What does this fold into?
Amino acid sequence: MTHVTPYLLFDGTCREAMEFYHACLGGQLNMTQVKDSPARDSMPATQHEKILNAHLKSGTIEISASDWLRPDRSPLRGNTVCLFLREETDEALRARFEQLSEGADVTDPLKKMFFGTYGALNDRFGIRWMFHSNL
It folds into this structure.
């Protein structure tokens, strides 16, 4: 089953923002800091307190988020909100990625990461997509 949720990127305020949304919307909030993940070994100490991943689920509302963790790029209005597409299998994820790649700027080709398969692109209409599968 395909899931699409908004994904928000914050410039160091992810924890505060997601706790605010949790207070407003209720539900279950889970957050992981860089220092509490396998990513800590490949990221500078200045990034360790930042949120690597946050997920809020309240009924049919879902929001995913993180702090901006790309020192080679700057957060700008327009690149801090994207669509986060999750698939249950790598095969389904690859098919969706290939379909949406037509005319797109692929910024992160699909690859295996410690948290699953991940990739990202800006589609031909300028919309940012992030892709994930747990397998």
